[in-house]
Design brief:
Blueprint (H helix, E strand, L loop, with lengths): L1 H9 L5 H28 L4 H26 L8
Helix pairs in contact: 1-2, 2-3
Length: 81
């Protein structure tokens, strides 16, 4: 799901509204996975390296979604591109 969503967000001809939604779906899934991995690491059920690697990925994913969100807001509402 993350790979397909990321590819569709990066697709150049993809509609802006769908691109914004897909970016947030990918970011949300990555953040959820990071929190799940962190919870497993804190409980001792998993090694902490997974959490150390997932947390920066979640932050980068959220920052990318914010940048796509700002890009969509920069387009005038009249539809002119």
């Amino acid at each position: 799901m993350l790979g397909v969503g990321s590819a569709l967000v990066a697709w150049p001809g993809h509609h802006q509204r769908h691109r914004r939604a897909l970016a947030w779906v990918v970011a949300g899934a990555t953040i959820y996975a990071a929190l799940y991995t962190l919870a497993l690491a804190l409980s001792g059920a998993a090694p902490p390296l997974g959490a150390l690697l997932m947390c920066p990925a979640a932050v980068a994913s959220a920052l990318a979604a914010f940048s796509v969100d700002d890009e969509v807001r920069a387009i005038p509402s009249s539809g002119a591109r």
